[in-house]
């Protein structure tokens, strides 16, 4: 009789970090449930990437939750503001950028927590990173600890002695280390999408913060980025 695997929900954006996180969860023996969001972002190419990645890893189920953060606004990723391009490493690491979406990870993790209760999963994986993270406040270890504390108070499963655990396997890694980890686990990075503002005739702009961090990570990892960028 085969052993029943534990279920894990993985927040999957289709980018390098979340895809590597999915690979780590698979490597740890979990049955994979992928959760993505159509939240009014500038483009839906990231969801195309998430679909490709989920299919590649053979997830048990992949759902996309719909809600519209454009109603609230407050971010260049959900409005008409300009996405910064060509910034230096120092500029990227200074302050909270206009691409920050208010409370996004809190919202995403809350959906994951709800789904975990429904399917009986005790583990949630999220690819947040406290090093190459562009200044987002909801990617810090202290934020994750606070959400974990809340999750242990706010759910029926926790009250019954089965709290959900939030896993952040990438939180202390550089982008290069994340890419090396993903490559060692067989991640096909050509399936992923990272760009905040892709042009209509290319898969990525190559100049937004996300593209720059990705390109720097591949260069430092000594690996070729399979994504083509306009020069």
Could you walk me through the main structural features you see in this protein, from its secondary elements to its overall organization?
This protein is α/β, with parallel strands linked by helices. It has a single domain (7-221), classed as 3-Layer(aba) Sandwich (Rossmann fold). 37% of the residues lie in helices and 11% in strands. A 5-stranded parallel sheet has the order 3-2-1-4-5, sandwiched between helices. Helix 1 links the parallel strand 1 and strand 2 (31-38). Helix 1 crosses helix 7 and helix 7 packs across helix 8. The chain is globular. The mean pLDDT is 93.
Helix-strand layout with pairing:
Blueprint: E1 7-11, H1 16-27, E2 31-38, H2 45-57, E3 61-66, H3 89-92, H4 104-119, E4 123-125, H5 141-154, H6 156-159, E5 165-167, H7 175-184, H8 209-221
Parallel strand pairs: 1-2, 1-4, 2-3, 4-5
Helix pairs in contact: 1-7, 7-8
